[in-house]
Amino acid sequence: MGPEGEGMATSTHPVAAGLAAQSPEGAAVSAAVQALARAARSFVLYDASNEVIRQLLQTWREKALAAVAQLGETPLEFRPFDVTFRGEVVYHDPDREKSLAFKLFRDGVRRITLLPGVEWSELLQLLQIVALRYTAVRQQEDDAVTLLRKADLPGLKLVAVEGFAPAEERPEPESGEKKREGVKPPEGWDTPLPRLPGPGPLAWQPVSPEALEALRESESEEALVRTALGLGRDLLSEAVRGHWPRPNRDLLQYFCELRDALLAEGKLGPLRQLVDLIAEAGAGDIREELLAGLGDARTLDLILEALPEGATDLPPELLAFVPLLGLEAALDKLAVEQLDRRRALLLKLVLARLPRAADAVLRRLPQLEPQLARALATGLAARAPEKALEVGRLLLQQRSEPLRLEGLEALARAPGEIPLPPLLSLLSDPSEGMRTKVIEVLGRRGDETVMPALLDVLQTQERAPREVEALGRALADLAPIQAGRHFAGWLRPKGRFLIGPSAQQKRLQWAAVAGMACLPGDEPERQLQALAQDAEDELRKHCLAALARRRKGAAHG
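RESULT FIELD:
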């Protein structure tokens, strides 16, 4: 560590206290210098074994080593009230009692360079020396330059001058430049104060309406709210400027109590101002901590209690809180809520978080009753279509038949191709309702490759009329031309004069009637009309119903 004499120019532009550097490199160095300043000042305020001290030491270690690892040699230039890194201001504090820059600049430090390979023990010694210089402005102990030279720290390189030079802090004006005049004291500032008149008798005096109104306004609830919000704004500003340690429970507690009071009084406008106030905070960690704290289960309870009787929607002033509300808390309440009105509001709150909270809602679907799961699954498919396939797969794994049916519907709504083999395996499901729904989904989303499986079921297995009709319609939807050939043969089975059509022939005929109603053109309708005229009562009714559905669909088409 070798000293060199070098003078540094004073900053010529105003810099806000605690200004964060703009470049990524400057931001890393700024974080390290701020951590050094906070830790050094805290040694004066706290006991060495305090938890705050340990936290600040760890922060200094992490930030300093991270900056050196990222940048290599890290030169810190010291000015009277600034620390710069390669010309960029990374620290500024004009307070002589608190400024790290002033303490070291006063002792003659002009540059400290953190070298690659600097060890934590050396960084800790640097912190101890800086902390010592915070204890007093001038004592008989060695100055910072002397202490640094005695420490012999190979991981640091020091550039210093001999002591403080006043001209560097406050340079003289150039020749011809007018000097500033000092502040002139008021006249009579050093003369005795005038004698006050003696006290007079107490007497009533009228107060103007304007004065009374101003007095009432100063004590009104609106004024109290303004004061509370103003205090919150000041606390946030100071927390950002002073880099308060995180997390800060006291700061969070203040904003939570203010939230509770505003919700309890139904003051939704100021509540929105509170959210906006926090959202505009300058530091991301403070903003995220406070917004997350305001959106806990307590907020959800207060919002539901504050809604007027019969309300079916959230007031516009509360919509700002929707992104903050704890989704898990809302889902917990939704699962146990008995009142339909509150359940509808909770459902709207959860759906309003989609698609951002799609994964969290998806995880909870199997734990909800079928009606709620169906509503959320529908919302997921509508607002997060890319999740529809995952919703369907998840619900199909459940034991509840209503949930499995909703899973099939989600697959039917899923964009893109859907997996067909799992659906084909459900054609042998024990539940008729599941089998019928699977057939409908295959008809809507399948292709010609599933036709052999549907034909096999229809030709070899006894199924209820409703399921047989679904098979006929699915075949017509999948391959109209190929299905039409099958239907033509099934409508008029070869006669068995003595014993009549077999069970299989009746089943195929029933499916053909349902499928013919879905085929385009005039020929299917003519064949259905002809069959209706010759058929027995039950088959004739089936033909007439198919013709009615066909004509109704054509009218709507």
